[in-house]
UniProtKB/TrEMBL annotation:
Cofactor notes: Binds 1 FAD per subunit.
Binding site for FAD: F27, D131, A132, D133
PANTHER family: CRYPTOCHROME, CRYPTOCHROME CIRCADIAN CLOCK 5 ISOFORM X1
Protein name, UniProt field: Deoxyribodipyrimidine photo-lyase
SUPFAM superfamilies: Cryptochrome/photolyase FAD-binding domain
Protein encoded by which gene: phrB
Highest classification ranks of the organism: Bacteria, Bacillati, Actinomycetota, Actinomycetes, Mycobacteriales
């Protein structure tokens, strides 16, 4: 089914009142984003292996040593001690799916708080997502890591605690996938594997050293 057919089908459903126009608009934006990803892949064939912005070749992401690290393993298994992140990673492993908002949060933690290379996250998503897309997967990972195409003049470092408070106010999502975090069950990390505040400051310092201050 072509993107044009999907676009027309969604638009017609909205016109008939079968879905809200706001929902149709949100879906159409995702179609545009997907087409943009494929457009960029056409012009940047190395999208899955090389930073779009060359200055990020100097970014101190962990690569070979990070692949077998305890931090990367904890991220993949959903035992980072950050409930929203762990919920997303466990959902991914169990179902092959994850909400887009949570994808951004887990990606931010990996690349900015843990300073692990986005390519390792991209590879894991490629292996586990049922909707893994040859263009969208690396495109979105480069976006969240800050080294790809980004319409905004700054880089976002998602605070997973704040994100959970906003988008999972009742903790229903977290309770579903990480029930032991709500009951302080033995075996769940009592503290996150990384200090979120300190690691954020360290990431900001690196961005500044590259001539890209995400706070401006």
């Amino acid at each position: 089914m072509s993107p044009r057919t999907v676009w027309a089908t969604i638009s017609e459903a909205a016109e008939r009142g079968e879905i809200a126009e706001s929902e149709a608009g949100a879906f159409r934006r995702q179609l545009i984003w997907r087409d943009f990803a494929w457009h960029r892949l056409y012009h940047v064939p190395t999208l899955a292996t090389c930073n779009v912005q060359a200055k990020f070749n100097r970014f101190p992401w962990g690569w070979n040593e990070a692949r077998d690290s305890a931090e990367f393993d904890a991220w993949k298994r959903g035992i980072t001690g950050v409930p929203l992140v762990d919920a997303g990673m466990r959902e991914l492993w169990e179902t092959g799916s994850m909400h887009n908002r949570v994808r951004m949060v887990v990606g931010s933690l990996l690349t900015k708080n843990l300073l692990i290379h986005w390519r390792l996250g991209e590879e894991w998503f490629w292996d586990t997502l049922v909707d893994a897309d040859y263009a969208c997967n690396p495109f979105n990972w480069q976006w969240v890591a800050g080294c790809g195409d980004d319409a905004a003049p700054y880089f976002r470092i998602f605070n997973p605690v704040t994100q959970a408070q906003i988008f999972d106010k009742e903790s229903l999502y977290q309770q579903t996938w990480v029930p032991e975090a709500q009951t302080n069950h033995d075996g769940y990390p009592p503290q996150p594997i990384v200090d979120l505040k300190q690691s954020r400051a360290e990431a900001l310092a690196v961005y500044e050293s590259l001539g890209q201050d995400p706070r401006k």
